[in-house]
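FAQ: What does the model actually see?

It sees only this:
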Amino acid sequence: MTFLSMFHVSSFFLAVGKVADSQQLVSPREHDSQEILPLIDAFLEAFLTFGTLLAVTSLARAAKGCLAADRVQVKKTELKAKHAPPAALQKHSKARERPAIPTFPSSLKRKTWCDQMVQVIRDGRAASLPTILDEARLCALSDGLSLRSRELEEMEIEHLASCLRGCASHQAFREAIWAYEHMEGRIGKGNRAIWSVLLYCTVEISEFDRCKLFFERLCALGAPSGKDFVNMVKFLAHNRDAMGLLQLLSNATTLGCRMSTFDWNRALAVCTWYGALDLAEILAGSEACAVFATEMDVVGFNTMMKAYSTAGSTSRCLGVMEKMRAAGVSPSAATFGILLDCCVKAEEYDLAAYSFKQIQLRGLTPNVVHYTCLMKGFAKAKKLEEAKAFLEEMLKDPSVKNDCISFCTVVRAYADSGDTEGALQIVEKMLSTGLLPNECVFNIVLGSCAVSRMEADKVFDLLALLIGHGLKPSNTTLSHLIKALVMTGSIDVAMNLLFTASQDLGLQPEPRIYAQLTQSCADRGRGEEAVEVYEAMAKAAIQGDIDVDRSTNLRLCRHCSLCGKEQSAIRIFNRISKHYSSAQRMTL
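And it is asked to produce this:
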C-alpha cells in the first residue's frame, strides 16, 4: 500500500465511503465481518503513510457507518507498531516528526479553538473559517468523541457561535453566513446566540429571505431580545409588510416579551428610514402597547413627527403634537425644530413663525438651528426684511451662539435678489460680531453682481472692499467677476482680467475659466475674442501652467468653429493635442 500513488489512495478512500454508505446491516459487528474490514486495514495504512485530510474525512465516514471508535483506535495502534522505523533510524527522523499534541481537558481545547477562530477573523481571514471548523471537528474525533454524541454537537455549536460573534463584531457578515452554511447539518437546534447573530447578519447584508427562518428558530428556544425585534422590524419595513408586523407583535405578546423604550424608538426610526409610515403608525398605536414596558416618550413622538415632516405632512405633525399633550408628554425644543422644518418645507411660513413663538412661550430656549430654519424659510419666500429681523433677534439673544450658516443664509437671500448693498450690510454686521466670513460668503456677495447689472468700476470697487474684509481671491472669485463683467458687456475688460489674473490676483486661471469666457464670447458672436481666449489657454497649457483635458479642448474648438473661426480653432486644437502626445511619449 505504501507504494500506491496518491490517485490510487484517493480512490481507496472514496471506495471506503461508498461501501460504508451502501451497507444495510443491522449491527456494526455484522458489518465488520464482511467487506469493510479489509478496506479499513488498507485505509489506515494509507492514512499513516500519507496523513492527508481526505483520509481523515473518509475515516470519519467509515466509523460513523460501520465501525466503533474503539475498533478504529485498536487498528491504528497495531499499524503504528508495524510501521515503526528501526531504532537506529529513529534519531534521524526526529527533526521531521510533528510535535505531539498535548492532552488538555475538553473545555480548554474548546476555548483554544475558539480563540484561534477569533484570531483568524481579526487577521481578515474569516473566509477560512469552514476549514478551521473542520479541523476542530477532526481533532475531537481523534480524541475519541463519537460522531453522534451530544458532546460533539455541543462543541460544534460553541465553535460556530464564537465564529458568528467574531464575524459580526468585525462586520464580516457574509463570511458568517458561509460558516453557518458549512455547519448547518451539524448543530441540531443550535442555540439562541447563533440564530440571533445570523438574523443580524442577514439584515445587515440585506439577505432578507432568510430572516423569517432564523427568527422562527430563535423563538423556538425562547423569547427574542429587543435587538432581535428591531432586526425583524427592519425586515418587515423593507418588505412593507404591515400584516407581518401585526403578527410579530402578537407573537411577542404570547412569548411574554417586554421591550424597552429604547428598542421602541429604534424600531420607529427604522420604519422612518425605510419610509414605511404605515408600519410606524402600527408601532405607535395600541397594538404595540402590550409589548413595550412603558409609554412612548418624547423621542418616540419626535421620530413620528420626523417621518411626517419628511413626507411633507404638516397636519400629521400637528396631530402628533396633540397626542403628546393628551399623553402628558411635554414637547421639547427638538419637537418644535421638527415642526418648524416641516412648515418651511410646506411653505407655511405664518405657521412656522407661530411655532417659533410657542418655543419662547413654553419657556424653552430657541437655538441657532431654530433661527436658521426660520430665516431660510423667509429667504425662500423672498421675505428679506422678515429674515433680517429674525437675524437681528438672534444676535440679541445671549443664549444663542452665532455661526456663519445663519449669516450665509440671509446673505444669499439678498444676493439672489440682486441686492448687493443689502448683502454687504449683512457681511458688515457679521464682522461686527467677531465672525470672519469665509470664501463662500464673499463669493455669494460677488455673485449678486451677475444678478443685477453693475458697472465694471463698481464691480472692482466691490472686489477691493471684500479683499479688505479678508477675501482671498480664488478661481471661483474670478468666475463670478467674469460673469458680472460679461453681463455689463465689458468683454474686453473680462479678457484683460483673465490674462492678468496671475499678476493682479495672484492665481493661475483654471481651464474652466478659459472655457467660460470663450463660450460667452461665442454666444455673443465675438469670434475673434473667442479665438484669442482659446489661444491664451493653449499657451498656458504648452508652458505647463495648466493641464487641459481632451473634452475641454474639444469644447473650445467647437465654440470657436460655430462663430466662423473653424480653421483657427482646428489649428489651436492640434497644437494642444500634439503637445500632450509629445509629453506622453517622453514620459514613456
